[in-house]
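Note to self: keep these together.
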Amino acid sequence: MSDVVLFEERPAENGFIGHATLNRPEKLNTLTTEMIALLHQQFSVWADDPACKAVFLDGAGEKAFCAGGDVVAVTTDPSPDMAVGREFFKTEYDLNFFMHTFPKPMLVWGGGICMGGGFGLLQGSSTRIVSDTSRLAMPELAIGFHPDVGGSWFLQRVSAPLGEVIALTGVHFSGADAVELGLADVLVANDAKGAILEALSATDWSEHARANRAFAEAAVRGVAAAQPPAISYKMMPHRDRLAACMQTPYFQERWDNLVALAQDEDPFLKRVGEGTSHGSPASAFVVQSFFQRMRHAGLRDCLDAELALSMNLLEHGDFREGVRALLVDKDRSPDWAFKAIREVDIDWMGKVLP
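Structure:
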């Protein structure tokens, strides 16, 4: 078995804890199709094994749980049928759905960088653990893409309008912010992982999934209480200012309000404005329209629609150009197809929106 993902069965009361580790620390544990398939395969085995009481997923190294997906491989594939991208996104979104519906406790450690595809893995767990080093974001607009991996579902369950702010700006937020936003369950100290694994191994597991989910979260909360984390907010002190930017029914005005924050004296708000202004206008317009369409859809329908949107943006959108500018040539000067929201062509939107 490839070593890009490590698997271990840790002895526990009445069975074992399945422990999976993303193992590309030199690449910030960015996900490849192979890694995603390995996770799905092993998670399926553990789901069917009555001796497996819970699953714990983390990333190797101190810098990152997972910085996202290997979008360079997706966007540089020369094949006309975009086979690499289609396989990657379908495999990824199938894993996302499987994790959300996993029949046993699924715990994900989102310490360090946890963005994009990594954030999707975190959201798929029944106990979403963040640490006092967590740095979270959905920064896809910066590469001309969209907040996928279920983002059209879970970001719309954040207190309005902050989910849309996260989607449009790529704003970085802390573990403490994530708990307040409802995007994480427990904040722990970054050195608490070992204690959590020990607590899970010592838990007296039952035969009932619902009870075991409660036991798993209780084990994590017990460690958090014994080893209190440092609590630091980045986004929450500015939530009223950010919400005020969105208090208009017109998307162009909401976008302009966010971009205007680049002139703010506050360093955090300034970064939010700059991040917004650097994103793809076309992708931003697509995202707000797509979110409206999917507002009341279930997770499976959202993921299926996201697959269609991802492939359309790969074929017709700014996705390839955004990855080139940010991750390949690294000139940070993308030549977006449309330079402003007002320029986005309705016929183009018809090609892209599923």
